[in-house]
UniProtKB/TrEMBL annotation:
Residue positions binding Ni(2+): H53, H55, E59, H98
Positions of Fe(2+) binding: H53, H55, E59, H98
Subunit note: Monomer. Interacts with MMP14.
Function: Catalyzes 2 different reactions between oxygen and the acireductone 1,2-dihydroxy-3-keto-5-methylthiopentene (DHK-MTPene) depending upon the metal bound in the active site. Fe-containing acireductone dioxygenase (Fe-ARD) produces formate and 2-keto-4-methylthiobutyrate (KMTB), the alpha-ketoacid precursor of methionine in the methionine recycle pathway. Ni-containing acireductone dioxygenase (Ni-ARD) produces methylthiopropionate, carbon monoxide and formate, and does not lie on the methionine recycle pathway. Also down-regulates cell migration mediated by MMP14.
Any one Gene Ontology BP term: L-methionine salvage from methylthioadenosine
Localization, UniProt: Cell membrane; Cytoplasm; Nucleus
GO molecular function, one term: acireductone dioxygenase [iron(II)-requiring] activity
Membrane topology listed for this record: Peripheral membrane protein
Assigned GO CC terms: cytoplasm; nucleus; plasma membrane
Official protein name in the record: Acireductone dioxygenase
Cofactor list: Ni(2+); Fe(2+)
This protein's UniProt keywords: Amino-acid biosynthesis, Cell membrane, Cytoplasm, Dioxygenase, Iron, Membrane, Metal-binding, Methionine biosynthesis, Nickel, Nucleus, Oxidoreductase
E.C. number: 1.13.11.53, 1.13.11.54
Length: 144
């Protein structure tokens, strides 16, 4: 597998990013800046992002500036902390429990990508009854 070579400073005209978006059908995108000066209701949003939840769709984030942490659950329900920084692209599969927090810089700017129209609904844990969660657990069992 070849390493990606994305340039977050040129995301608006990055041909490699455009290729990824085309190949994976990421038809919708926006930019979110998570910092006290730019995000309305910053404190409330930070608390919401850090609440353990899942989504019915994949969560795709491309970090354009700053840094933070995604925490995800492993197959034994333990936390794994993933540090993301400028230039990182992360995809969290539908049905995975996760949370997000900024680091000591309290700043991250990220591109949010979706297949189709965005659905922002977060299902706080427990949400094991949802089909996306069941499919994710089936995937984990098959991968083991």
């Amino acid at each position: 597998m070849a390493a990606l070579s994305l340039d977050p400073d040129k995301y608006e005209n990055d041909l490699e990013l455009e290729k990824i978006r085309r190949e994976r059908n990421y038809s919708w995108m926006d930019i979110i800046t998570i910092c006290e000066e730019k995000l309305p209701d910053y404190e409330e949003k930070i608390k919401m992002f850090y609440e353990e939840h899942l989504h019915l769709d994949d969560e795709i984030r491309y970090v354009l500036d700053g840094s933070g942490y995604f925490d995800v659950r492993d197959d034994e329900d333990r936390w794994i902390r993933i540090f993301v920084e400028k230039g990182d692209l992360i995809t969290l599969p539908a049905g995975i429990y996760h949370r997000f927090t900024v680091d000591e810089q309290n700043y991250v700017k990220a591109m949010r990508l979706f297949v189709g129209q965005p659905v922002w609904t977060a299902y706080n844990r427990p949400a094991d009854h949802l089909e996306a969660r069941k499919q994710y657990l089936t995937f984990l069992a098959q991968s083991a």
